[in-house]
Amino acid sequence: MKIVFNAFSFLRKKLKEQNIPYVEALLEFPEEFTPQKIIEKFGFEDEEVEAVFINRKVQPKDTVLHDGDRIALLPPGTPGSYRLILGIKKLKDSEEK
What we know:
Elements: E1 2-7, H1 10-17, E2 25-28, H2 35-41, E3 51-54, E4 57-59, E5 70-74, H3 80-86, H4 88-96
Parallel strand pairs: 1-5
Antiparallel strand pairs: 1-2, 3-4, 3-5
């Protein structure tokens, strides 16, 4: 399965150190892969990735990916008002219940 991958902020630095592309990168993963597995594969701690966008919508980290999906990893620190607009606050609140 191939996905289009993006990462932001300090996540890019960590990926660059590993020679992993992080801007509109076409990456291949096994079927049934999830963003959580990508986070683990790239050596990130779970708390280093606050939100995952799949096809431009915030989704849980355990969402199963499909061929052609667009994935973006967003670290903590996104400005306050954007957290609600982007759906990050809503997702985090529902995961805590």
